Structures are given as C-alpha cells and as structure tokens.
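Researcher: I'd like a structural prediction for the single chain below. Treat it as a standalone chain; there are no partners to consider.
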Amino acid sequence: MKKIAIVATGGTIAGSGRAGMTTNYQAGTIPVKDILSSIPVVSHEFEISLFQLMSVDSNEMDIEKWCLLKRTVVELAASDVDGIVITHGTDT
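Model: Treating it as a single chain, here is the predicted structure.
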C-alpha cells in the first residue's frame, strides 16, 4: 500500500460557512482529518499520514510560513513516503 503524507495549511479547502454564502465564511477552520473523513475511499487505498502544519487564510501566507512548508516537505521527501499532498486552496 502506498504511503501518502498530507500536509494541511488551511485556506479555502478548509473553510467553513454556509453553502453559497460569503457572510461569516472563514478560511482554514476545518481540520485536515475532517476533510479526509469526507472521502473515506482514500483511507482504503492508501496509508495516510496527516500533518496539520498550519490553519491560515491565503492572505496570511508569508515567507516564514512558506519556509516552514518547504522544510516540512523536504523532511517528508527524505522519509519513506511515496507521495506528498499539500492542501490549501485560495479564492483569490
């Protein structure tokens, strides 16, 4: 079974609010484990490791956060994972 690391950073993909409504929408509020639970077939096909690195809006991504993400990906790439997925999403 392939080993996949999912590194969550927040953004639109982890946003919460009412469908079709922008009022009270907040990016980066849903944990990656909850997102993954909405697609259970993934857990049956792959060995998944979850890394909730940060939970920020895309406007909050700065050089320090990008560098942290890079270091995390480099560390994971040197481990025994077969693939790395970074979740974020942006509405900009």
